[in-house]
Design brief:
The chain is an alpha+beta fold and 327 residues long. The chain contains 9 helices and 16 strands. It binds ligand 2P0. This is diphosphomevalonate decarboxylase.
């Protein structure tokens, strides 16, 4: 087999409108329920994988610094999956750069593993269809399965490795924006992986989530097909709050939302009162993302900036592309 000298891939984060929270199989990263997201056009991850027969282990560089921690081990375990499939024993140099904050509940693992999957598959000459690439990215991080695709993507829960993949969802319009209020750019206090497990194992509200989430997913698909923005927004905000409610019921409770998160939720409600359709969603961190129509994005961003002052940073994003290999 001829190894290419290196391959670089670029991927973007995605924000789930209908969330993934909880695994059925931790090793294969099979989710309890399906989810649906919007891939963004900001905070890209660019990753280069260079197999090198002289290496005695994978060498992982993150934002210019060689790392040797849990994140580096996750990368090495992921590369093992690729090497097993092509029968290679050659380690690789991995250089990755995040334009946005890392592990702050802003979907850096989604862009990270989507980029790594595409770059590694290319570098080790593993030919994959987009669906197979989505399944591979899922093994690194569940939400990465969705960042393989641009725009709206649905990740089917599936029954097994073969049936759990994401694919694009056709929407009547992509004229939406996601305005992100970054109130904390540092690493989250508890990883989503640990928080999910605790929620599944201890929250008495989790069965309610398992009942409701497929209904929300179905309703969201209908809203997207109909181009019904109001319905999309209502479902987005309700689903996010349902996810946080289920984790608040865990023991010990998992609380990602901070006082500033709630202030933003109030401001989003006030925007709606003033006739601007805007809806909030929050992930595994205190940052709030506001879904609105493209023509309202600057008004929403101005309102959030006025509210936050020096406390945070506001970033306007739109629908972005799927992962691509650049060399
Ligand atoms: C999501 N999140 O649907 C949900 C909503 C956070 C809240 O997917 O354990 O990094 O690597 O599969 O994908 C974040 O969790 O978790 C996430 P793993 P992941 O976007």
């Amino acid at each position: 087999m001829t190894l290419l000298p290196c391959a670089t891939a670029i991927a973007y984060p995605n924000i789930a409108l209908i969330k993934y929270w909880g695994k059925r199989d931790e090793a294969l990263i099979l989710p309890m329920t399906g989810s649906l997201s919007l891939t963004l056009d900001v905070h890209a991850t660019t990753t280069t994988v260079s197999p090198d027969a002289r290496l005695s282990a994978d060498a992982v560089e993150f934002n210019g610094t060689l790392i040797d921690d849990a994140a580096a081990r996750k990368v090495a375990v992921f590369l093992d999956l690729v090497r097993q499939r092509v029968g290679s024993r050659v380690f690789a140099r991995v250089r990755t750069r995040n334009d946005g904050p890392t592990a702050a509940g802003l979907a850096s693992s989604a862009s990270g593993f989507a980029a790594l999957a595409a770059a590694a598959a290319h570098a080790y000459a593993l030919e994959l269809t987009p669906r197979e690439l989505s399944r591979l990215a899922r093994r690194g991080s569940g939400s990465a399965s969705r960042s393989v695709f641009g725009g709206f993507a649905i990740w089917h829960a599936g029954q097994d490795d073969a049936s759990s993949f994401a694919e694009p969802v056709q929407a009547a319009s992509l004229d939406v924006a996601m305005v992100m209020a970054v109130i904390q750019a540092g690493q989250k206090a508890i990883s989503s992986r640990v928080a999910m497990r605790r929620t599944v194992e201890t929250s008495p509200f989790y069965p309610g989530w398992l009942h409701q989430n497929p209904l929300d997913l179905e309703a969201m698909q209908q809203a997207l097909a109909a181009g019904d923005f109001t319905r999309m927004g209502e479902l987005t905000e309700a689903n996010a709050l349902r996810m946080h409610a289920t984790m608040l019921g865990a023991m010990p409770p998992v609380r990602y939302l901070a006082p500033d998160s709630l202030r933003i939720l109030d401001e989003v409600a006030a925007l709606r009162q003033r006739g601007v359709p805007a809806y909030a969603t929050m992930d595994a961190g205190p940052n709030v993302k506001v879904l609105c129509q493209r023509h309202d994005a600057l008004a929403v961003a101005d309102a959030l900036r006025a509210l936050l002052g020096d406390v945070g940073r506001v970033v306007v994003a739109h629908a972005g592309p799927g992962v691509r290999v650049c060399e």
